[in-house]
């Protein structure tokens, strides 16, 4: 597995270079159709490399250029600090949501993972 570090952390000569693993994670994020999501773990499983934490790190460092809101936590909770921006995207894309109960903290909905989760479609064949 490639080590993921902030751009430029290894010196100026690497400032523009995207780690190979990060490129692969971002490519998967771009494949996820509007209105669907994959978990961090799903992306790692698809790549057959790394794990949820590694995918999360890539998304935190480099995910701004791809549909980052489509790579989510397995419990369907919205990304802390980005809830409202993500919620706007989910509503625009008609991503299935579970509305929050009145007792839920912040009254924010969660992603309906059963309905929104994408398995990669036909391309997922061969990936376990």
Characterization of the model:
The model is unreliable at 1-15 and 124-128 (pLDDT under 50). The chain contains five helices and four strands, in the order αβααβαββα. It is globular. It is mainly α and 128 residues long. Helices cover 36% and strands 6% of the residues. The two termini are 18 Å apart.
Task: For this entry, give a set of tags.
128 residues; mainly alpha; two-stranded antiparallel ribbon; 5 helices; 36% helix; globular
Q: Mean pLDDT across all residues, rounded?
A: 84
Helix content: 25-40%
* β-sheet strand percentage: 5-15%
- Please compute the radius of gyration using only Cα atoms: 15 Å
Number of helices: 5
Helix/strand/pairing class, anyone? mainly alpha
Topology:
Blueprint: H1 20-31, E1 38-39, H2 40-47, H3 52-62, E2 71-72, H4 83-93, E3 97-98, E4 110-111, H5 113-116
Helix pairs in contact: 1-2, 1-3, 2-3
Task: Give a quick precis of the structure.
The chain is mainly alpha-helical and 128 residues long.
């Amino acid at each position: 597995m490639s080590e993921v570090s902030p751009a430029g952390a290894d010196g100026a000569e690497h400032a523009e270079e995207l780690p190979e693993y990060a490129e692969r994670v971002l490519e998967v994020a771009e494949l996820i159709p509007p209105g669907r999501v994959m978990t961090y773990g799903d992306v790692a499983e698809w790549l057959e490399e790394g794990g949820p934490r590694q995918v999360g790190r890539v998304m935190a460092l480099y995910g701004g250029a791809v549909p980052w809101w489509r790579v989510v936590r397995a419990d369907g909770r919205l990304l802390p600090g980005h809830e409202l921006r993500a919620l706007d995207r989910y509503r625009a894309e008609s991503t299935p949501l579970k509305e929050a109960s009145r007792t839920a903290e912040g009254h924010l909905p969660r992603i309906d993972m059963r309905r929104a989760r994408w398995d990669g479609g036909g391309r997922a064949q061969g990936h376990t």
